[in-house]
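Last lecture ended with a question: if I hand you only a sequence, what can you say about the shape of the protein? Today we answer it with a concrete record. The protein is MHD domain-containing protein. Below, first the input exactly as provided, then the predicted structure, then a couple of comments.
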Amino acid sequence: MARIDGIIILDPNGKPLISSHFPLHPPSYPSLHIDTFNSARKKAIADDEELDPVIWVNTLSRGGGSMSGAGLCHVEREGLYFLVPVGQEVNPLFAFSFLDAFLDTLKDYLGEMTEINIKDNFDIIYMLIEEMLDEGHPMTMETNMLKEIVLPPTLMRKLLNVAGVSGLQAPATQPFTAPIPWRRPGVRHSSNEIYFDIEESIDALIDKRGNILSSSVWGRINCNSRLSGNPDLLLNFSNPKVLDECAFHPCIRYNKWEKNRILSFIPPDGKFRLLEYQAVPTTTGTVKNQLPLGVKANMVIEPNGGRFSITLSSRLNSRPLEDIVISIYLGKGATSVCATAQGERKPLGSRSEEGAAEGFVAGGNWEFDPHTQILKWKLSSLVSTERSPTLTGSFVSSESQPTPSPSFEISFNIQHHSFSNLRVDQLKVQGDVMYKPFKGVRQLARSGKVEVRW
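The predicted structure:
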């Protein structure tokens, strides 16, 4: 059966903060993985390459007489590195899936995953690892159940720990006695409400003329449930056919979804992820025409430099695109950039003393980092009714034949928008409850990995 050897957390400098769950291995086993990871990371930085998500580590076999090996799966969050060694024949997705759940739990417990928070909550993190891993096998993964076993950090608890006071009040409900594993019994709220956040991202590849070569839409539905008792919910969508390749929370009754395309579930209390999915094209349109941004780009390479131009346009009539960032890697030898961002001058609500409307250039602003050789063009918003903003300029390189990236990346956000047009139609409440909850639905669309070729 697949198992995880343990988990290691490193600080931004590669020094271990936490190393746990390696009882079946010699003491040097986690150190080998840490040294291998740090060496591979330094080499990737020196060669200006991306670090492979799975690294092979040479280790001694348990008998000590021959060389063996293990895979090292790792992710980076907020400057910290989370490593999971797997010494058996294990699908790496198994380790990454555990890491994803572990990081979500840490975020729920600690808020921001910073080095200071990790150091201030060593005891809680070690207890979480003990409960989430049973001899290398994922065990208790539900946050609601974990909070019945490992109390979240609070200001009062920290003060009592500093004062040396022990014996904090244990939760009234004994763990693992709830008939529904993901929901503790006896939940009570003064106001009964549930919120659904539909978040979608689009991955796309665009040629220099603005034609979309490939694209796909991914989404998730996050919930925040504050409902009393054990409500049995039925969630209907107006167009459930757009949902494909779904990954459900364990609370969802899969048979009812397969039969009627209705989500039937008793929700956990608090925040949880209800559903992840990939959107598929419908009969009224395709995913390819859902990219809300039009792009035309051109790059000309010259000796010791080059010239470039980018034009943006919005394809949305109802919503503005916000927080637009264009990132262009100009190559190792790039030393300086000279560029001009142009666009409409949009008036603001206030007026100056002379009576003229104050405003800003909608072309945004740009900045170049000579250490990373990345040029960033930022626009706060873009609407379809304004003149298309442009960025034109040139760069200087110390190399006679510059080699900028063959493509550049775009990021953006769109409030109250859905690429797939997924809509919540109705929410029904059944079970032993006598109330009608307040339902809130919020939508957010953002870019995933959107690349434009020169």
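Comments.
1. The two ends are 48 Å apart (CA to CA).
2. The CA atoms of residues 60 and 67 lie 5 Å apart.
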